[in-house]
């Protein structure tokens, strides 16, 4: 039985039943997850970086379009660490996805090119200053990444960030982080959010292609096991505190910090750190290894088993409508 629609701005913008984006997760998100999410009444996005070539990215977009008729997006890293940014943007515009989520850089060129193709652009922000900047560049919505988010989290709580952005910005605010159940979804919308981007809940799903060990870790560990590390990409990122993470620590060593501050070497060191970190994540995500570097956010506290995506979305909506 289809549950009652949740009326929020994101539902109107994308014409979806529920204002929920299955967040783009590096190495985790795939076409099966997006298709399942759309069929369940939500939407979802995949990082362009999940594909080794731009043609693989094109094939993935076409696969989703041929399977379902609902909206979906692609997450694009728009800073200099993404050497294939221009090619990825060109493919996305040619294939006309519904929206782009930009991360880690200035979205000016992306907004300009996407709007020419009739594509909306939602921009990751962690504070008001950057939110005002992307609004002035023509962004269609803001993804408010708070400190409860997984992956590259912000440093402001959902209870402070969403109301501040709603008060000072005139475009929709989509909250990212801090939603692990339907009650928290309702609280986020009551704070003023126009929709929510939810990621970590969907790692331990039947549709995800990551290893069973990664999925089970999301079941076995909880919010108190999430730590921030700068060793993966140079940018602080949340991971599950496995014995391996405890062993290697979460801070860059003195040489890494020095290289990260050198004006001439900074760009190349960041790119090297990013690629090295991504390789470590990839190895851990798809195989059983003691070198486990698993990205996740505090909302894994709500993950009790490995389930289909439809079950999770149904539960979110059911809890949203319940009287707590």
From TrEMBL:
<keyword id="KW-0560">Oxidoreductase</keyword>
<keyword id="KW-0503">Monooxygenase</keyword>
<dbReference type="InterPro" id="IPR013785">
    <property type="entry name" value="Aldolase_TIM"/>
</dbReference>
<dbReference type="Pfam" id="PF03060">
    <property type="entry name" value="NMO"/>
</dbReference>
<dbReference type="GO" id="GO:0018580">
    <property type="term" value="F:nitronate monooxygenase activity"/>
</dbReference>
<dbReference type="InterPro" id="IPR004136">
    <property type="entry name" value="NMO"/>
</dbReference>
<protein>
    <submittedName>
        <fullName>Nitronate monooxygenase</fullName>
    </submittedName>
</protein>
<comment type="similarity">
    <text>Belongs to the nitronate monooxygenase family. NMO class I subfamily.</text>
</comment>
<keyword id="KW-0285">Flavoprotein</keyword>
<keyword id="KW-0288">FMN</keyword>
